[in-house]
Amino acid sequence: MTSLSSGSADAEARRATIRDVAQLAGVGIKTVSRVANDEPNVAPATAERVRKAMAQLRWEPDLGARNLRRSDGRTHTIGLLVGSVTNPFAAQVSRAIEDVAVRRGSAVFTSTLEEDPDRELASIAALMRRRVDGIALMPIAPSQAYLQEEIDRGLAVVCVDREPRGIALDAVRSDSRTAATIATRHLLRRGHRRIALLLDREDLWTAQQRRLGFLDAIRAVGLDTADCPIVPGLRDAESSGMAAARLMKSATPPTALFCGKNLITFGAVRTLQRLGLQHQIAVVGFDDFEFADLLDPGVTVIAQRPSQIGRLAADRLFARIERPGLWVPEVIDVPTDLIERGSGEIPPPIE
Amino acid sequence: MTSLSSGSADAEARRATIRDVAQLAGVGIKTVSRVANDEPNVAPATAERVRKAMAQLRWEPDLGARNLRRSDGRTHTIGLLVGSVTNPFAAQVSRAIEDVAVRRGSAVFTSTLEEDPDRELASIAALMRRRVDGIALMPIAPSQAYLQEEIDRGLAVVCVDREPRGIALDAVRSDSRTAATIATRHLLRRGHRRIALLLDREDLWTAQQRRLGFLDAIRAVGLDTADCPIVPGLRDAESSGMAAARLMKSATPPTALFCGKNLITFGAVRTLQRLGLQHQIAVVGFDDFEFADLLDPGVTVIAQRPSQIGRLAADRLFARIERPGLWVPEVIDVPTDLIERGSGEIPPPIE
DNA sequence: GGAACCCCTGACAACGATGTCAACGACAAT
DNA sequence: ATTGTCGTTGACATCGTTGTCAGGGGTTCC
């Protein structure tokens, strides 16, 4: 037993600093620093003594203090701002980004924006105060121009899933517009002439693009867009389900639904099943999801590749962090895949 | 235009420090510090000048530097170590924890452990080097005793979803053992006598508990446990699906499956549907999931309450951070709900 | 023998902020 | 006029680390 008073265990143990290690090892603090950073020119015997002292005191360098002095100015920390972690698409993107970060030795500050523009600004400000090296962002604010100043100061930024607005930044995303055209054309080929598009909030870049792609396909066949209603502003499965129900009860209900993202598909499919219409009304959804194949009918989807998107975005982010300079911002396009499972191949009723 | 050379935009802008602000405002740095921290005793006119300078230089304090000197020693940063973000249960828990953290003004380092014990140790070490105030942990390593030292130094820790081993810590989780008993009894009441338990790796606390609860129910009715095989070690939907297929092809296949967590349910349901057995074999799954109600048959589950678990865990964590002291660690039990949807109510075949 | 070099080492300043403290001026009370 | 109090302010030390630099000691090469 070392001492009686230590038995009370009331006072908190103080965390060891580099000075404590130096004293215990009988060397200067700079020598401890050298050993901790694997710098050359330390006598093997000295290094051994220092390492023993480190282990004995369980000393670990304070990265905050280290970063304060280090010349490279890097904190080995990145920020990850996602729309919503509970969205399976976003979760997979996050995971891929975090994977890369861990391999590169960076810690990740994650923050959920809940698709709230104010929260984007607030979160970015918080990350800047913590001096992150870079940020992977799913942009939601109407403009990201406010980032220019931070970028001039050395911040690296990559947009994920959506393109930025008001500023040119690297972005990794699916070509939503083309994918939406392909999905819509898929329904048109089956003979559908009244197709509804259920859409997220239109201030989202992805929603805008998918609307454009939808209209591209509709107009290409010279269809009256009045027969092809667009219902925007659907944030979750509930609102989407209600919108689908309203559509089906209207005077001229659509014969096919194109759902603008996973949560919207969830709501629409649920409503169709509740109304017993799942074998009459065609559905194509954006984003693949668990059980899309096990539902009856299986749900035809445009599958994105979230982990590929995440990995490419992270690679790009670290490339910018490690080799800052005047790169030209670039938009990287990740392919999508149309997966036919039944719901998208239902023909319209014969009139 | 300010100058010609600034047009080259080649050099990076230097980030303003408190000294720059002080100089611009014509005051000492301590006065800037006072204004930044809303300390009293600054003349209104001075404060106004300082605030103007801050805005002009877009100065934001460096939280790393601030923390180095601050007496309370808090970094307003917590760590969140989850098994896997792509697991919807874990995603909901994470989201709830992050919500609380943001409201309390703390940033969150998130790290995915992928159920790897080594990664738990490595991630915790990384968080300690960054001097987080507290950690919310889904424990995976065989023992968390190694945390004692950090706790003595003031770290707050709360376990989520699983209890710690080798040390007493706060924990917020479902009572998996009782829930498993309830689920098993549900099947027994329908007359099932050959029930299989599909289980995750048994080094996970939850898996151990669910096994115990399963056996409690089996033994309570005096059943031969040989007829009730336990298949452990199922990490994902694929391995679970294969295990289910093997079981169904065995000499005396079970008439009911109890699936130990969401991913396992996914695999088992998929296999049963592929074999066309979904209306013959009963299934009860642990964890609710999207579309459990829309499958045919609907999947009966033990639903956990992930956001409640996350919220309670975070509340507890911040309570410990804000009022450190010798609290007695406590295990908080969050209720589960058995939701009947059809698959769990299928009776065994008449022999 | 001396210059030149290399290895090893620690004193000290610095990073960007806050804590401590003393000095200053204005004002009230004696 | 003197003293005391209070609001305001900035010089300086400090947090835990790394960058700079100079010095001591040994070896090698003229």
Largest interface, with counts of residues having CB < 8 Å to the other chain, equals: A-B, 59 and 59 residues
Cα-to-Cα separation, first versus last residue of chain A: 92 Å
From the spread of the alpha carbons, the general shape of chain A counts as elongated
Encode the helix/strand succession of chain A as letters: HHHHEHEHEHEEHEHEHEHEEHEE
Main structural class of chain A = alpha/beta
Largest sheet of chain A: 6 strands, parallel
Helical segment tally of chain A? 12
Oligomer: homodimer
Instruction: Count the beta strands of chain A.
Output: 12
User: Mean pLDDT of chain A, rounded to whole units?
Assistant: 94
- What is the percent of helical residues of chain A? 40-55%
Low-pLDDT stretches of chain A are: 1-10
Which strand order spans the largest sheet of chain A, edge to edge or round the barrel?
Answer: 2-1-3-4-5-11
Give the percentage of residues in beta strands of chain A.
5-15%
- Give the radius of gyration of chain A: 27 Å
GO molecular function, one term (chains A, B): DNA binding
InterPro entries (chains A, B): HTH_LacI (IPR000843), Lambda_DNA-bd_dom_sf (IPR010982), Peripla_BP/Lac1_sug-bd_dom (IPR001761), Peripla_BP_I (IPR028082)
Protein name (chains A, B): LacI family DNA-binding transcriptional regulator
Pfam families (chains A, B): LacI, Peripla_BP_1
